[in-house]
Fold this sequence. Notes:
Elements: E1 5-9, H1 13-23, E2 28-32, H2 35-42, E3 50-54, H3 62-71, E4 80-84, H4 89-98, E5 102-105, H5 110-165, H6 171-188, H7 200-209, H8 222-225, H9 233-240, H10 242-256, H11 262-273, H12 294-309, H13 320-329, H14 337-345, H15 347-356, H16 361-370
Parallel strand pairs: 1-2, 1-3, 3-4, 4-5
Helix pairs in contact: 2-3, 6-7, 6-12, 6-14, 6-15, 7-11, 10-11, 11-12, 12-13
Amino acid sequence: MSRPIILVVDDSPENLMVLGELLHGDYQVRAANSGATALRLAALKPLPDLILLDVLMPGMDGYEVLQRLQADEVTRAIPVIFVTALGATEDEEHGLQLGAVDYITKPLRPAIVQARVHTHLALKQARDRLAAHNSDLEAEVVRRMGENLLIQEVSILALAHLAEIRDPETGNHLLRTQEYVRTLGNQLCEHPRFRGFLTPHTIDALAKSAPLHDIGKVGIPDHILLKPGKLTPAEWEVMKTHARLGAAAIEQAEREATRPVEFLVLAKEIAHHHHERWDGTGYPDGLAGDAIPVSARLMALADVFDALISRRVYKEPFSPEVARAMIVEQSGRQFDPDVVDAFIATYGHFCDIAARYADTQATLEAKLRGLQVTG
């Protein structure tokens, strides 16, 4: 193990010689006879472990040297002991207030100097070990948080694909609606009605939760879910139960969790209420206006836009321009007007997302071939 480095600063050659002879047996010693030289040597790597600094020097005194050391991010953590002939209590207090760790008065007593140096080097080594340990702990926390987030995202997508496997919609629908929700959230985050809720963290959690919006379709019979034509009134009532089924499934997961999980709270809101309408005529609970959770309001528009521009077994896709006009026409009826305004403002981005995650004809045909109505 290399010996600790001590920088000795004094304008007197005799004092430098005395301190050098006293310390060189146990430590590596650097010597500076001016403040400017001290600053240069203090920043030289490997950095000193301790600085013995004279106060009374011509030009730049020790107080100014200490202030400059502490103003520099490279050298601010190096402990400094003032070594001076100034023995008044106010001088010592001033030095300690500036940030010196100790104060040794001249004439120097070898045993005192060695004891103080040994003590402050031991303290520095302890601080360094603690800082390294804390850094390792922080890195481990970051690593584990990253793993947990990855597991969470994979779990969300795995659950979402349970519904997608039985649904005529493709997996790209999940990716598109996820990005539509993120886009709306980012557009509305500074809006007075939404800024308290739509923080960057919440927007990210919303986007991660969005793929679970139709998880309840797992509970819908195939002959209804996959019916290529219009549903009968009775069949439509069964289809609408997917909102409650999805919310119930997520609520069960919440109950089994050992602590509240934020994304499950949002996912439950989205699954339960993304078919509610601003005017109160939606389902399953007929909520209206601000009674509909913000998360569900964003999802409602994202889901409808994607349904309109996508091919389904029962319809051809509308163009994005037609879908845009249809959504605008529903402002204040099906959708929150401010959410529609955000959609209008980001319509180009919506189109980019739709193009980026577009379904290919081969994907659609393969999906339809894999879906068999069983009853």
